[in-house]
Amino acid sequence: MRVRVHSACPPPALAPHWRGASPGVTCCRGLSQQPPWRVLFFGSDDFAVESLKLLHASRGESAVVDLLEVVTLSSSVPVRKYAEEHKLRVHDWPDVDFSGQFDVGVVVSFGCLLQERVINKLPYGILNVHPSLLPRWRGPAPVFHTVLHGDKFTGVTIMQIRPKRFDVGPILSQEFYPVPEKITAVELGASLAIVGAQLLVDTLRNLPERIANRREQAKEGATFAPKISSSLSWLIWEEQTCEEIGRLFRAIGSRTPLRTIWMGRAIKLLDFVGECQPFLGSHSAAVPGSVLYQKESNTLLVRCEDGWVGFKTVKLKKRLSAADFYNGYLHQSFLNKSPSQKSCQFQSYRQRAQHFPKGQNTKPLLLNTGVH
After folding, report:
1. Residue 290, H or E segment
2. Among 349, 176, 145, 364, which residue's Cα sits nearest to residue 247?
3. Are 270 and 315 in contact (CB under 8 A)?
4. For 38, phi and psi rounded to 5 degrees?
5. pTM above 0.85?
6. Residues 6+ away with beta carbon under 8 Å from 318
7. Are 81 and 74 in contact (CB under 8 A)?
8. Which of 63, 149, 346, 362 sits between 20 and 30 A of 198, alpha carbons compared?
9. Tens digit of each residue's pLDDT (9 = 90 or more) over 335-347
């Protein structure tokens, strides 16, 4: 179930530039304005394309949008491709032509801090579609951190941006969204992109009212969602649980494979299958990092802090199935061990720091296990 929340507080003053009044809603400066709006859209990625698509579709009879132009950062981003395919005028940042006298700006996954002079050129300011329930997960990677930290619910916030800092502006609208179990960051991002596009158009449909009733973000509960670092992909078998490794894989696995150390070499762990149980004998005394091959399911099982997790594929120089890795590496290593050694072992990154170039950051980021 999704729940929409609107804000309530005293009306603000509008920005100093205005294109002239038309009959309708009266704003704080005594001027009138109502949809359709002249919109300048700032965006880059696939998440932003969903909002651009719906804005583009919201023109015509009973329209929310009158004029729609686009600002992008490079020639290769999805937003530019969509704009060019649909004959929308494109501006290359930062060379933006404001002669079109836009009413409002919309920023979705743009990645650049907009200067105050740009914000002030738009009478209703610039709105931002942010995929979290601000002030939770301010920053560039809110969806990844939502999955990584096991949040049970998230949502989308429509806010007005302010200069000099990201994600601190007043909230115009929010919509709650429960996080499905086992969802990946890619899947969650795709769902929130649709929710965000719909909430954006709903906000624009009632923009003067939403601005008049905006509310400042609470000081309590603010968290930061930094960019995903490749150092996060190094596993620490002694400290991470089955659940934490699963969340980590669902959060970053689509862009950065999970990694560990095998015989002094970095190895990528692919095709995660979740928590597993060994079939043969009792391995409750196995140390974290211990690795077994389960022939019946063609899976590599690795002992972590509180159990075993499975992977179907690994990558050394090339991709190898669990069976290929067992036959080519694990089986021979097992034969060379003494009878007292019951399994082979992956090693955590921090234990093998000496195998990496001097000066390289070998401190992995640890998971915050708190659930919100």
Report:
1. strand 290-294
2. 145
3. yes
4. -95, 110
5. no
6. none
7. no
8. 149
9. 555 444 445 789 9
